[in-house]
Amino acid sequence: MIWRIAFWAGWVALLSLIGYLQVEARSQSIAPDAEPNQETEQVVESDSVPGAREDTNIDPRLVSANTRFGLQLFSQLQQETIAENLLISPSSVVLALTMTYNGANGTTQQAMAEALQLQGLSLAEVNQANAALYHSLENADQVTLSIANALWARDGFDFNADFLQRNQTFYQAEITALDFASPQAVSQINEWVSQNTEGKIPTIVDQLSPDAVLYLMNAIYFKGNWTTPFDPDITTDRPFYLPDGTEKRHPMMQQEGRLAYYETEQFQAVALPYGDDRRLSMYIFLPQPDYTLEEFSESLTPENWDTWMAQFSMQTGTLQLPRFTFEYSTSLNDALSALGMSIAFSDQADFSNLSNEPTAISEVLHKTFIEVNEEGTEAAAATSVEIITLSAPVDPPFQMTVDRPFFFAIRDNQTQTVLFLGSVIAPE
C-alpha cells in the first residue's frame, strides 16, 4: 500500500501534487455531488506600513498554526540543505496536507495534527478557517494570486463520500474520475496543470502508477509588481560574497527612499511592498557581517517572527538588492517525518476517512521557482501572527547592501499568511 504526495512548482507558479497509491482497489465509481461552499467576502483596506492584522474574518489560530509549521519545516529543510539556495511554499504544503488530513483517522490524524500545529482545532474549524483564508487571498487586489485544487480519482475505486464532499465544499476542489490505465489520463492531468500554472509547468506526470487511486493537486500562482520599482538603468554588477569567502560579480538593483525597515545587532531587514495597497510584501533579512545565515536561521522561531513583524517602521535609506532567479526541489518525506508525521508513511497509516481500503503515503515532493527583478516578483506561493509594538527610530538614513547570503519571505500583510520562505546563498 503506497500513497504518494508530490509538490511541484514552475516559473511563476507553485503546483502541489498529492497522490494516493494502493495495491488493491474496490470496483465502485465515485459520484461527488457536493456544491462548493459560498463564503462571504469582507473587504478591508491594508495599512501602508506592514504589520496590522486587519482581516477579522480569518481565524488567528489557523494563521498561527501555519506560521509555526512553515518555520519549522523551513528550519528542518535548511539542516538538510548544504550551500544551496532554498525556497518553500508553506501555504501550498499546508493546503495540500490539510486536504489530505480530511482522510486521516486515529493516530495518523493525531500525528498530522501535531505536525501541522492544528491541536485545539476541530476538523470542521480547520476546514472553515482554510476556506475563509484562501477566499481572502484570492481576492487580493493589485497582484495576481490564484489558487486551484483538484482531485483526480481512479474510476471504480470506493471513496468516502464525506472526504470528497469536504474537499469540494471547503477547498473548491474539482473532482474527476479517470481511468488511470488510459494514456489520456496523463494528458488530462497535465493539461490541468499547465492551465493553472500559466503554462509554466506543461507536464507533471509522465505515467501513472498502476496502484494509484487518487491524486490531489494544488496550484498557487503569484505575480506582483513592486509599489516602487527599481530603476534598471542604475542596476550594476557589484560583488556578492559567498559563504566560503569568495566573491562573484552579480547585478545589484538599487533603491532610495522611505521603506519599512528594522535593524538589530544580528540583522538588517526591509519590507518591499507590492501594488499601491501594499497588501503583500517581500521581507528581506540580511545577517550582520559578524552573524551568519545559519545563526540567523537558529533564531527564526515563531515567537521571534511575531516580534520582528511588529518592529518595522517607515525610515529613509538606501537598499541594494541582487536580482535573483532559482529553482529548488526536494523530497519532504524526511522533514515531515522529523516533524512527527512518520506514521503516515508507514504500513500503520490510517486513512480510513478517505476509504475503507488501506493506504499510506509513499513520497512528498516539493519543487519551486522564483524570479525577482526590477519590476517585481514572479513566484509560487507565507503566515504570521503579529504583536503590536513599536520600533525605535533610526536617526540617520540606513544603508542596506545585500551582498552576502540572506533570508527572505513573501507575506500577505492582511491575513498574515506566509506565501514563501527562502534563503539565497549564491544569486543566479
Question: What's the quaternary structure here?
Answer: single chain
How would the global form be characterised?
A: globular
What number of domains?
2
Report on the biggest sheet: 9 strands, mixed
Overall number of strands: 17
* CATH structural class of the largest domain: Alpha Beta
Alpha-carbon distance between the two ends: 41 Å
Question: Can you tell me the CATH architecture of the largest domain?
Answer: 2-Layer Sandwich
Secondary structure category: alpha+beta
The low-pLDDT segments are: 1-48, 378-394
| CATH homologous superfamily grouping of the largest domain | Antithrombin, subunit I, domain 2
The total of helices stands at 9
What is the residue-averaged pLDDT?
A: 80
The radius of gyration computed from the alpha-carbon positions, rounded to a whole number of angstroms, is 22 Å
The topology string of helices and strands comes to EEHEHHHEHEHEEEEEHHEEHEEEEE
